[in-house]
Amino acid sequence: MNNVLFKSNYTDRWYGISDHISDTVNVVESIGGPLIFGGTCSNQPDSNNICISRYFNSTLQPLYVNEFGTELYSINTIAFHSGSKFTFGGEFYFSQGVGTYGRNLATYDLVNNRIEPIAIFDKAVNSLSYLDGKLFIGGSFQTNLDVQNINFLARQRSSVGVSNFPSKETFEFYPNPFTTSIHLEGVQNRSVYSKISFDGRILKRGQVMNETINDLAFLSSGILLLRLETSDGFIVKKIIK
């Protein structure tokens, strides 16, 4: 047996689940019929590289495998609300293709077998819970994207926006994709903006003038984040060049 046990009904016998499981299992979550296991995983020789597994019909299947670098990853918490995706948090880094990066918080699509990172936290996520359809996040992190102060507790606003206090203000922007400039409707002049890459680098920072951000031709093509500072918080939007 390897880290997971279950007990048969009406007997005192315990059975072990082996293979395709993390070295140390930290979290077990029931999603529909299957059980989802998360735990520690490493890409080092003689270590288990399986971070997340699914157990269904007496079969274990690895879902997320640590294939990046030399870090020890740890899946600490899993939360599910509805649909085909569950959210998981811990200490890990995910990179797949151009413009797809994330650290310590992501979703897994059980239908398409696809991981989507939704934050870049500086430290671990330890707990996740949904309340009224909103995801609350707890951990030892203090920043998201290295620029947004979030002290230990956050709430998800959108697929790319995580903040401690969501802004009540909204705005529209176009075109998306853009080439050299972006027009923003409903944004006050001199509002501070930042263009941030998905790996957390600030590519451009300035003030909105005449509801427009100009001089963006130098940015490389790909997915970026537009972070706008408002009077009561931050708004983060995903944009494409």
Structure report:
The chain has 241 residues and is mostly beta strands. It is 0% helix and 54% strand. The protein is built from no helices and 23 strands. It has strands at residues 4-7, 14-17, 25-30, 35-42, 50-56, 59-65, 72-80, 85-95, 101-109, 114-117, 125-131, 134-139, 143-144, 148-149, 153-156, 162-163, 172-174, 182-185, 192-197, 202-207, 212-213, 223-230, 233-240. The strands form 6 sheets. Strands 3, 4, 5, 6, 7, 8, 9 and 10 form an 8-stranded antiparallel β-sheet that branches. A 4-stranded antiparallel β-sheet has the order 11-12-15-16, with no helix packed on it. Strand 5 (50-56) and strand 6 (59-65) form a beta hairpin. Mean pLDDT is 81; it is low at 163-168. This is Secretion system C-terminal sorting domain-containing protein.
Name the features.
241 residues, elongated, Secretion system C-terminal sorting domain-containing protein, Secre_tail
Outline the secondary-structure elements.
Layout: E1 4-7, E2 14-17, E3 25-30, E4 35-42, E5 50-56, E6 59-65, E7 72-80, E8 85-95, E9 101-109, E10 114-117, E11 125-131, E12 134-139, E13 143-144, E14 148-149, E15 153-156, E16 162-163, E17 172-174, E18 182-185, E19 192-197, E20 202-207, E21 212-213, E22 223-230, E23 233-240
Antiparallel strand pairs: 1-2, 3-4, 4-5, 4-7, 5-6, 7-8, 8-9, 9-10, 11-12, 12-15, 13-14, 15-16, 17-18, 18-21, 19-20, 19-22, 22-23
